[in-house]
Structure formats: C-alpha cells, structure tokens
UniProtKB/TrEMBL annotation:
One of its GO terms (molecular function) is magnesium ion binding. Pfam families: Pribosyltran. Keywords: Cytoplasm, Glycosyltransferase, Magnesium, Metal-binding, Nucleotide-binding, Purine salvage, Transferase. It comes from Paramecium sonneborni. It is an enzyme of class 2 (transferase). Pathway: Purine metabolism; IMP biosynthesis via salvage pathway; IMP from hypoxanthine: step 1/1. Belongs to the purine/pyrimidine phosphoribosyltransferase family. Its EC number is 2.4.2.8. One of its GO terms (cellular component) is cytosol. Its cofactor is Mg(2+). This is Hypoxanthine phosphoribosyltransferase.
C-alpha cells in the first residue's frame, strides 16, 4: 500500500516496532536517572504529542512525575521560518523543579534553544532535553539532547506527530517524502 499526502508518495523510514524500541530505551534511561527526583515532562506541541505519549507510558510507573505542554511554531508548510512564535504557555510552576523538555525533532536548533531560554527564566532546578529525532546536517545552533532516540538523515519526514502543513501527524509510523 502506497501512502500519498499532498500528491507526494511517502516511504517508510521507521516502523511502529522500531519506534517503540527506540522510545523504550530512552524511557529506561530517564527512569534510571530520575528515581526520587519527581520530574516534570514538558512537551513541545504539536509535534511531540505522539512521542511524549509513548515515552510517558514507557517510563517506570514508580517514577513520580507531572506533565505539561508548551506550544510553539517556527514552520510554514515544509520550511522553517527561522522565527519562533510562542503560542501558549505552561500551566505548572517549574521553579525549583527538574524539567525534561520533550521535543519531536531537532533540526536547526532554533526552536528548542528558544524554549530552553524561556524555561531558564522560570528558575527550574534543572533542564534536560529529550528528543525523538535529531536531523543531521541542518543545525544552525549546535545543541545535543540529553536523551535521544535516534539521529536521522536530512530528509523531510512525516508521521509520528510530524506533519506537512498539519497533514500526516496521526500516522503511527515515520515516513519520508520521496
């Protein structure tokens, strides 16, 4: 079965099983590192919703944590505008908390750098970055996640929360545009 979105054929990049295994390994690392630290996971919407959902469910159930979300945007269509627009903020106070920012993909580094700089102003105890994907060769700001599922090639990917003009976010596997 061929998947077509916006007249483009999609090719499978990672299957459901591969994604589950990558996310599980990352969740185990976090679970081990955050015993007795009561972190707050902050997902960057819209893209991180599927990854964060799977990550949270794979975290050790004994780990006491909270979740929250922040919504930002720097894309129009398939291109980054390079300008990060904050659309909505946190519901929880993070002062003195151990924060884990959960991002779907890091490409240029502009969006996540802006998120982290804004979070620092709220005086958390720690801020760690967890990303599902790190796209090689696209970074304008060199930022390395503390927790990373995998690096990917410089292809336009879609699915598993990532979109093309808001299409394809709900696909449960990761694809690239041919």
């Amino acid at each position: 079965m061929n998947l077509i979105i916006k007249d483009k054929e999609l090719q499978l990049y990672y299957s459901k099983e591969q994604l589950k295994n990558m996310v599980g390994k990352t969740a185990n690392q976090i679970s081990n590192d955050y015993q007795d630290k009561h972190p707050i996971f902050i997902g960057v919407l819209n893209g991180a919703f599927m990854f964060m959902s799977d990550l949270i469910r794979a975290i050790d159930p004994q780990l006491k944590f909270q979740i929250d979300f922040i919504k930002l945007s720097s894309y129009e269509g398939s291109k980054s505008t390079g300008i990060v627009k904050a659309l909505s903020g946190l519901k929880n106070d993070i002062k003195g908390r151990n924060v884990i920012v959960v991002e779907d993909i890091i490409e240029t580094g502009l969006t996540i750098t802006a998120v982290i700089e804004e979070m620092k102003k709220l005086e958390p105890a720690t801020i760690k970055l967890c990303a599902c994907f790190l796209k090689t060769g696209k970074q304008k700001i060199n930022i390395k996640p503390d927790y990373l599922c995998t690096e990917i090639e410089d292809k336009f990917i879609i699915g598993y929360g990532l979109d093309w003009d808001e299409f394809g976010r709900g696909l449960d596997q990761l694809y690239y545009i041919q």
